[in-house]
Specification:
By secondary structure, this protein is α/β, with parallel strands linked by helices. The chain contains 8 helices and 6 strands; from the N terminus they run βααβαβαααβααββ. It is globular, with a radius of gyration of 17 Å.
Length: 205
């Protein structure tokens, strides 16, 4: 049976953090949004509001589900504020937490290469299946993300991380692991699942 979650669904990456600017591995380190990241979340809220185009008294329940990491949960809170739907259901789900980069977290790519040269060279052979030292691979998280998507009600908004969104694209668009691991996942924009394909449904106004 072909994998096909409920539709429509909307997926958004958290806003920017200082570690994003410094190009540090964040993984499961709880790094907060910076001011620019908060502004990006507001923009995504405006994009989402336009996409949803919901009447004030819509009978369709809106569900927002976020990673527990504060950069994602704060983004979700800002989205809720922009949508103006105080009765929306807001949940946290561990399945959306970013993949762990283990001993590389807090390091820049250059620092990780210098301190863990052999591990970096090994992982370059298959970034999807090979985990950083003490961390997780994308492949290890596929089963949990798939189970999360199966249980997701239609009209849900999912706020997560670049790694998780690459896994979601792998599952929904049935692209190869090598394509998924190299996907660009910007901080601004909304990915929408229509039941057949995951597409970029909204960009900066």
């Amino acid at each position: 049976m072909q994998f096909s979650p409920n539709a429509p669904l909307y997926f958004i990456r958290h806003g920017e953090t200082d570690w994003n600017i410094e190009r540090r591995f964040q993984g499961q380190s709880d790094i907060p949004l910076n001011q620019h990241g908060m502004e990006q979340a507001k923009i995504n809220g405006a994009i989402l509001a336009e996409l949803l185009n919901r009447p004030t008294n819509s009978d369709k329940a809106l569900h927002i589900v976020s990673s527990p990491l504060s950069r994602a949960s704060k983004t979700a809170e800002i989205l809720l504020g922009e949508l103006g739907e105080p009765n929306a259901e807001f949940k946290i789900d561990l399945a959306l937490m970013e993949i762990s980069f283990g001993l590389w977290e807090g390091l820049t790519s250059g620092e990780a290469k210098q301190q863990y040269y052999e591990a970096r060279q090994t992982r370059r052979k298959d970034r999807w299946a090979i985990a950083p030292p003490g961390g997780e691979s994308f492949a290890e998280r596929v089963e949990g993300v798939e189970a999360f998507l199966h249980g997701l009600p239609a009209h849900s908004v999912v706020v997560s991380h670049s790694g998780i969104m690459r896994i979601i694209a792998f599952l929904l668009n049935r692209i190869s692991a090598s394509e998924a691991v190299n996907l660009d996942v910007p901080h601004i924009g909304v990915q929408a699942w229509d039941g057949k394909c995951l597409n970029n449904a909204g960009k900066m106004p």
